[in-house]
Amino acid sequence: MPYTPEQIERINRLRRFAPYRIYSREVINLYNKAMKVWGTIRYRPKYAREHEREIRKELEDLRKEYDRLNRVISERVRWLEFAPVDYEDYRRIRIQHPIETITETDTLGDVLYSVMEIIKENEERLKKIIVRREKIGTDTLTGFEIYYNFDTEKYDLIDERTGEVVKENIEEIELDVTDSCETGGGHEPFVAEITAKTKFSRKRRSEVLELANEIQRKIKDYIYEDYSPYLADKIIIKVGAEYKSEVEPSLSEGIVNISLEKKEAKVVDNLLKVGKTKVKYVVVRRIWNRFLKLI
Question: Where are the domains of the chain?
Fold first, then answer.
């Protein structure tokens, strides 16, 4: 309904006071900003998921602005709380909320209350559409971060600089565990690199770390138990784990392929238990020249 002559006359009297015109405009601006975020979350959920950080920042800024205006209107210039919205500012409302609708009779206090209700609704809606993810590690092939998606039980690649989801619904991830061991000296010092490869799916971060740690423990046990009698000095082992979003075709889940580069050529076929899964280790050793003269 349009403003009545009595309302217009009252507003014209209020417009003589600079604080009224300033805060009426700022309150409506805040309402428009809150409604812009509301429209984005409601009608563009995919965009909201991809730009979660930016939207959360906007909501934080809206709360800060609300607190500032509410403090001024309710504590310093209290009569503004009961003053109606300026009719020129009312015409600048872009989108009306289906419930928190602003009318010609609403006061600045009423609009502020509606703004806070819209902010709360935005925060709740954002929680519902945001995908629950857990970081696994960095993809060595692309440099993007691998995240486990709790909803799809698959993996997503995310560029953490922009928050963009680069690739979704990756079924399997390759896990490469590398151990480097060397003797500190002795009659026959040598350097060996052991690479263990497997793949996994539908595993959370804790389960992936448990798998990697168990593989590392088995590799260390194998080196110490099988080869330490033949080594002159203490073995030094450096451990690292890598993740790849593209899996080698030869890999199978539950099977760990291990290649060990050392002087002695030997093939060992062992069955070891990793957690509750029996894992078959295929150890292949190639002749390694210490000074790389034959390569």
Answer: 5-129, 133-170, 173-286
The DSSP string of the chain is -PPPHHHHHHHHHHTTSHHHHHHHHHHHHHHHHHHHHHHHHHH-HHHHHHTHHHHHHHHHHHHHHHHHHHHIIIIISGGGGGSBPPHHHHTT-----SSS---TT-BHHHHHHHHHHHHHHHHHHHHHHSPPEEEEEEBTTTSPEEEEETTTTEEEEEETTTTEEEEEEE--EEEEEEEEEEESSSSS--EEEEEEEEEE-S--HHHHHHHHHHHHHHHHHHHHHHHGGG-SS-EEEEEEEEEESS--TT--BT-EEEEEE-SS--EEEEEEEETTEEEEEEEEEE---TT-TT-
pLDDT at 45: 87
This prediction has a pTM of 0.53
Mean pLDDT, consecutive 10-residue segments, the chain of 295 residues?
86 93 95 96 87 91 96 87 94 91 93 96 88 91 94 91 87 92 62 87 95 84 63 58 95 87 46 42 38 33
